[in-house]
Write a structure and sequence with these properties.
Elements lengths: L24 E5 L4 H9 L2 E2 L4 H16 L7 H11 L19 E4 L4 E4 L2 H10 L4 H10 L3 H12 L1 H7 L6 H16 L5 H10 L4 H10 L12 E2 L1 H16 L16 H5 L15 H16 L11 H19 L6 H4 L6 H19 L6 H24 L2 E2 L5 E2 L8 E2 L5 E2 L5 H16 E4 L4 E4 L5 H17 L12 E2 L16 E4 L16 E6 L4 H8 L2 E2 L2 E2 L15 E5 L1 H16 L9
Antiparallel strand pairs: 1-2, 1-17, 3-4, 5-14, 6-7, 8-9, 10-11, 12-17, 13-14, 15-16
Helix pairs in contact: 2-8, 2-21, 3-9, 8-13, 13-14, 13-16, 14-17, 16-17, 16-18, 17-18, 18-19, 18-21, 19-21
Length: 598
C-alpha cells in the first residue's frame, strides 16, 4: 500500500501519487438516505498529504519495537522519510524543520510557496467543464431532487473549499516529524540509513522551538499578535482559562498554525493564511506536540537543557495540563470543537498515552527532568482515571464475549422504510485505537525480557477489556462486513454547529486593522474574528445567550449523525486502519501474561 513509484495520474480516473507515501483519501461525510450513502461510498480522492504516511510509519516502528511484529524493511522506512522531507516550509530563507500538511508549489505571480493539494485542485478545475444543468435535469427526472440539492450546494462552495487549501505550516506536522525522528533515534541500529537521512534533512531543530516560542497562544498577554484565538477554541477552552485566571497563572499553549494575526494580514494576499485568519488550539495537535518534545528529550535527540528554557517549559507544562483537563472534563462536553481536526477521540487517547508510556519507561532507567515528572503524573491521572473509565464503559459486546467500539462513520443512515442502518465503517479502526490507548497506558516495556508488562496497579477489568477487544479484532480485521475506514483527520468545519462566527467574540476587524463595530451583519471583505484575552465567566455566559450575526450559539454537541449535522470532508486511510490493528495485536501478543483465549 506504499507508493513505490511516483505517478502523474489522469483525473478523475486516476490521481497523482508521490513515491514513498501511503494511501489516504479525501472523502465527504454524508449520511441519511441511500443517495447520501452512495456519495459517501463513491467520492474518494487520493491525497498526497504528510499525515497518513507519518502515522503509518510511526505505527510500523512501534509495532516492531514494542510488539512482536516483524521488522519493516529499511527501504520501506527510508522511502517514507524521504517522501516526508518534501513538506518543509519554503517560505523562509533558512534551513528549517517546520512542516506543512501538503507539499508547497511556487506561485511566481504572488512570489510565495503555497500549499498545493494537486489532486483536489485538479478535480476542482475539472468541475468547471461539466454540463451540470443537463446532468441535474436527468437526476430530477429520476426523482433525485435531494441529491441535486446536495450537489448544487457542493458546487456553490467550490471557491470556499479551494481557498481553504491555502494553509500555512503547522505545529502538528512539525512535531509529528520530530516524533518520528525520536523513534528513529531509539532504533537507529535497525534503520541506520533512515535515521541518517532524517538527521540530514533536520539539521536545524532549533527552528522548531523558536517557532513554538514565537507563535504560542498567550491569552493573558497584551500582544495582539498572539493573545487572540478562534471563537470555537475559546468556547471549549474557557473553563480551563478561567481556572488559570483564578490562580493568577499565565498561560501559553501550542496552537495549530505557524502564523500570527500580523502575518496573516499579508499572508492572506499571498495564498498562505490560516483558516478564518485566526489561530486555534486543537487538543490532538497539542498531544502530538507534547509527544514530540517528550521523546526528543528522552532519546537524546535534543538536549534536556531545552526544558530549562522558561518559555519552552511554560508551553510544555501548560499544554500538558490543558490536555489532562480536557480528558477529565470530557473535552468540556464539546468534542466537536476540542478535537478540531481529528474527530476520533480514540485516536487522540492513543496519542496522549504514547507520551505517558515513554515517561513511564524512561523513569525506570534514568531520572526524569522535573517538569517531565510533573507531566507524567498529570497525564497519568487523566489516562488511568477518566479515559480508562470511559473505555471500560463504552464498548458493545457480541454473543461470544468479544467486544468492539464504534465512532460515527456509517452510523447515521436509514433505509427506504426509514429504519436506521448501522454500517460501522470505522469499527475496526476505533476498536484498534481503543486497544492501543489502553495497552499504551497500562503497560511498560521491559528491556531485559523485550516484553510489555502490565503495571502493578492494572485492574483486571482493563486486562479483560483489552483481551475481549483483541478477540474481536482477530475475528473481524479482514471481515468484508466492515469497511476498514477511519476519520483520522477532517476539516475544522463539520456542520453548522462548528462555524466560528456563531460563537462569542470580542475582536472583529478587517485585515488592515480597521475595527468593525457592527456585530449583527456579516462584513464584506476578509476579516479577523476572534476572542482576545480572557474574559470573566459572567461576561462569557451573557454572550452565549446572545445571537452573533443572527445565529444562536450552539451550546450542545449532538453528534455527527444528527439530521442537521450537514456534510464535511474527512480523510480516511485503509493502510492506517490495518497498521493500527497490527500495532494493537502485536503489542497484545507481546504482553508478558498469556492471553485469556488461544
Amino acid at each position: 500500500m506504499q507508493v513505490k513509484r511516483a505517478t502523474k495520474g489522469l483525473p478523475p480516473l486516476t490521481f497523482h501519487q508521490e513515491k514513498g507515501l501511503y494511501e489516504s483519501d479525501v472523502k465527504l461525510y454524508f449520511h441519511g438516505d441511500f443517495e447520501m450513502y452512495l456519495i459517501r461510498e463513491s467520492f474518494q480522492i487520493f491525497d498526497n498529504n504528510n499525515f497518513a504516511t507519518a502515522w503509518i510509519t510511526t505505527a510500523l516502528m512501534e509495532a516492531y519495537r514494542l510488539g512482536d511484529s516483524p521488522k519493516p524493511s529499511e527501504e520501506q522506512i527510508f522511502m517514507s522519510v524521504e517522501a516526508m522531507s518534501q513538506y518543509y516550509n519554503k517560505n523562509v530563507n533558512y534551513t528549517n524543520s517546520i512542516q506543512n500538511f501538503w507539499p508547497q508549489a511556487y506561485n511566481s505571480s504572488l512570489r510565495a510557496w503555497q500549499s498545493t493539494p494537486q489532486n483536489l485542485l485538479d478535480l476542482f478545475d475539472l468541475s468547471y467543464g461539466v454540463p451540470w444543468d443537463t446532468f441535474f435535469r436527468i437526476l430530477e427526472d429520476l426523482g433525485q431532487q435531494e441529491l441535486v440539492k446536495t450537489l448544487k450546494s457542493l458546487l456553490a462552495d467550490r471557491d470556499l473549499f479551494r481557498n481553504a487549501f491555502m494553509i500555512p505550516p503547522d505545529f502538528d506536522d512539525t512535531f509529528v516529524n520530530l516524533g518520528i525522528g525520536s523513534l528513529l533515534q531509539e532504533v537507529s541500529s535497525d534503520f541506520p540509513q533512515s535515521s541518517k537521512l532524517w538527521k540530514e534533512k533536520n539539521s536545524n531543530l532549533t527552528s522548531v522551538f523558536d517557532a513554538l516560542k514565537k507563535y504560542a497562544y498567550r491569552p493573558m498577554s497584551n500582544d495582539s499578535k498572539v493573545n487572540s484565538i478562534d471563537p470555537r477554541t475559546y468556547m471549549y477552552l474557557h473553563p480551563f482559562l478561567e481556572e488559570a485566571m483564578t490562580r493568577n497563572e499565565d498561560i501559553a499553549l501550542v496552537p495549530t498554525w505557524v502564523q500570527d494575526t500580523d502575518e496573516v494580514r499579508t499572508g492572506f494576499y499571498s495564498g498562505v493564511d490560516m483558516p478564518f485568519n485566526i489561530n486555534n488550539v486543537d487538543v490532538t495537535v497539542a498531544a502530538n506536540t507534547i509527544y514530540g518534545i517528550t521523546n526528543a528529550v528522552l532519546t537524546g535527540l535534543v538536549n534536556s537543557s531545552l526544558l530549562d528554557d522558561p518559555e519552552i517549559q511554560q508551553v510544555y507544562l501548560n499544554t500538558s495540563n490543558m490536555i489532562a483537563f480536557e480528558i477529565k472534563t470530557n473535552f468540556t462536553n464539546r468534542k466537536d470543537l476540542a478535537l478540531t481536526y481529528y474527530p476520533s477521540e480514540f485516536e487522540f487517547y492513543w496519542f496522549v498515552a504514547r507520551t505517558y508510556h515513554q515517561l513511564q519507561y524512561y523513569e525506570r532507567i534514568m531520572p526524569l527532568h522535573p517538569v517531565q515528572e510533573r507531566i507524567r503524573i498529570s497525564l497519568g491521572a487523566a489516562l488511568c482515571g477518566r479515559m480508562t473509565d470511559h473505555l471500560l464503559d463504552s464498548y458493545m459486546a457480541e454473543t461470544d464475549g468479544s467486544i468492539y467500539y464504534d465512532d460515527f462513520l456509517g452510523d447515521g443512515d436509514f433505509n427506504s422504510k426509514n429504519v436506521s442502518e448501522i454500517r460501522a465503517e470505522d469499527r475496526i479502526f476505533t476498536t484498534a485505537m481503543a486497544v492501543n490507548a489502553l495497552l499504551t497506558t497500562w503497560t511498560v516495556y521491559n528491556d531485559v525480557t523485550k516484553k510489555l508488562e502490565w503495571t502493578s496497579d492494572t485492574h483486571y477489568r482493563v486486562i479483560d477489556t483489552v483481551t475481549r477487544a483483541v478477540h474481536w479484532l482477530n475475528k473481524n480485521v479482514l471481515n468484508p462486513t466492515y469497511r476498514p475506514w477511519n476519520a483520522f483527520f477532517s476539516g475544522s468545519v463539520k456542520g453548522s454547529h462548528t462555524l466560528p462566527f456563531e460563537y462569542p467574540f470580542n475582536r472583529l476587524e478587517f485585515l488592515n486593522g480597521t475595527k468593525i463595530p457592527d456585530h449583527d451583519h456579516f462584513p464584506r471583505g476578509a476579516t479577523i474574528i476572534g476572542m482576545q484575552g480572557v474574559q470573566s465567566p459572567a461576561w462569557y455566559k451573557a454572550e452565549i445567550k446572545k445571537t452573533h450575526f443572527g445565529y444562536k450559539v450552539p451550546t450542545e454537541f449532538k453528534g455527527y449523525n444528527t439530521d442537521n449535522a450537514g456534510f464535511f470532508p474527512f480523510w480516511s486511510s485503509v493502510p492506517y486502519t490495518y497498521v493500527s490493528t497490527l500495532l494493537a495485536l502485536s503489542k497484545f501478543n507481546n504482553v508478558e501474561q498469556k492471553p485469556v483465549f488461544e
